[in-house]
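COMPLEX REQUEST
Ligand: pyridoxal-5'-phosphate
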Amino acid sequence: MKDLKILKAIKNEQKRQDEHVELIASENFVSQDVLEANGSILTNKYAEGYPSKRYYGGCENVDVVEQLAIDRIKKLFNANFANVQTHSGTQANWSAYNAVLESGDKILGMALDSGGHLTHGFHVSSTSKYFQAKSYGVDKETHLIDFDEIRRVAHEFKPKLIICGASAYSRIIDFKKFKEIANEIGALLLADVAHIAGLIVTGLHPNPLDFGVDIVTSTTHKTLRGSRGGIILTNDKEIAMKIDKSVFPGTQGGPLMNQIAGKAVAFYEALKPEFKIYQKQVIKNSKAFAKRLLEKNFLLISGGTDNHIVLVNVKKSFGITGQEAEDIMQKINITLNKNTVPFDEESPRITSGIRVGSPAMTSKGWIEQDFTDLADIMISVFKNIDDNELIKIKKQEIINLVKRANRIKW
Ligand code: PLP
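STATUS: Structure written out below.
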């Protein structure tokens, strides 16, 4: 590469990714094959439209790529219809809303501090500007989705669309209960499975389409371990046609064909038996991490985990804020994010919690013992955030722990 400044930044980022413990729950390490597809000459091609219905010539090869991506993700989710063109999860949600809603319609989604995503109607997201949005939350004691509250708000507010799915929820989502409530008020139901898609396609989390959920949206780069981007699925032909029109020309122009190729390669990998072994390890690892914190009496949101996420109330456990926790972890080569906790008294910029995810380090080959050792190191630093000598020692321990990675190739 001749652009030395960009080359240097990429090399530095490579070093960071090699030497740090990556615990951001929405990140993962893609395979070399996915990277090759992303960096391929497919980036040169304009392909507005859909396979065999394009608005540009020369699309015969990208048609093959997009059709494979569609067929593979349909198989993974057992879906009748898939759109693989959205550039991100946010655009997948916007395109889905735009397909079935009119401006001013009512939507009901999970509150940000309970674990919902910005696009589920949070006030700073444009979704709340174009739609009337209300939110539901989790139970104050159990931190589990509060279906009594959802039913009450749904009957009062009468949304046209209910959104389930989350960015920070560590328990199984009961799509059947959501569907019952949506049916009671004649609302459509959308499940945003961005975080848990990899668990769903390997049968480790219920599939919303099995419960009649009308639309499923997802990102492709979290547990699904593909290129960055979005997908939209449905079993309803009429909704499917609306979604295609909403994505193109409704909300996007030309699709990113190199990204779609990366999605197709990731879906090919996800169809292999090894992917289920990987996803099982993802859950074993987050459970091992949670178990260690619980053994030491720390406070976890919902008291544990069923998936790839562990949410820790660092304020109640260690007397520090989420921001302080994120900063101190950075000093010992651990990357994670602060996170609001249910009924958080701190602002979303400070927070009382952190979110820890196991997918990325599991891709690097970590097993339960690594996550248990990681928990011990984190606990000792959280308890002594001003002890610079200890921080130095623990940083070295983390560097040694990272070297244990790459023992398994998934
Ligand atoms: N939906 C959920 C549940 C998410 O967690 C996220 C991202 O974290 C998104 C949507 C948005 O995805 P993107 O960042 O690709 O726009």
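REMARKS: Residues 288 and 369 are 8 Å apart (CA to CA). The first helix runs from residue 4 to 19.
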